[in-house]
TrEMBL record:
GO terms for cellular component: ATP-binding cassette (ABC) transporter complex. Keywords: ATP-binding, Nucleotide-binding, Transport. Belongs to the ABC transporter superfamily. Residues 5-228 form the ABC transporter domain. This is ATP-binding cassette domain-containing protein. It comes from the Bacteria. Gene3D superfamilies: P-loop containing nucleotide triphosphate hydrolases. One of its GO terms (molecular function) is ATP binding. InterPro entries: AAA+_ATPase, ABC_transporter-like_ATP-bd, ABC_transporter-like_CS, ABC_transpr_CbiO/EcfA_su, ECF_ABC_transporter_ATP-bd, P-loop_NTPase.
Amino acid sequence: MSLLLEGTGLHFTYPHRPPVLAGADLTLGPGDRLAITGPNGAGKSTLLQILVGLLRPQAGRVVAFGIERHAEADFHEVRRRVGYVFQDPDDQLFCPTVAEDVAFGPLNLGQSRAQALETVARVLDVVGLAGFEGRVTHKLSGGEKRLVSLACVMAMDPDVLLLDEPTNALDEETTARMEAVLLSLPQAMIVVSHDPHFRRKVVTRTLRLQGGRLAAPDPTCRHARGTG
């Protein structure tokens, strides 16, 4: 099985703080739905950002789609093929309307305006927001913003999804919708989540990040019921 993403011996330290990654290793293959758990501040978001080149490790290597990635130019392809849904949707949504936000990626990939609008309609339907094209983004509810953020990355037709706390502050109904959408998608994914019920429904395996390293949770516990 060829791996989609691989991080080996990753080290990262923010200035004047203890290391958050100290030899972390992970792999993601086709069909994997990997959850990353761990305490607040353990480095889970940092790890996702390293995998797409938004941060660079002080040591270790990142291999994406069979190629080791070093420089910024190496990660251009990675960010086209890996859809990253940020923890705070306000960090991801910056256009006046939903249609403009979702169309931004397809237009930059060379789709015509007509093609991009078709993509917008398709992905909004998938996330249960059909008809939201003209809605003003900053007036959406928190749950709607999260679903639009997911639609934005789905519009790029990525091979992999990285989702940072996708159910944070969602109500029960919107959480159920997010679960249903993710379960319907073919992409491999890495999901950072503190929600054990969500993980139990969506992921196929779990790693816990603590002390700068990733390891399987205690095998005496069910894999998706970790505390972090």
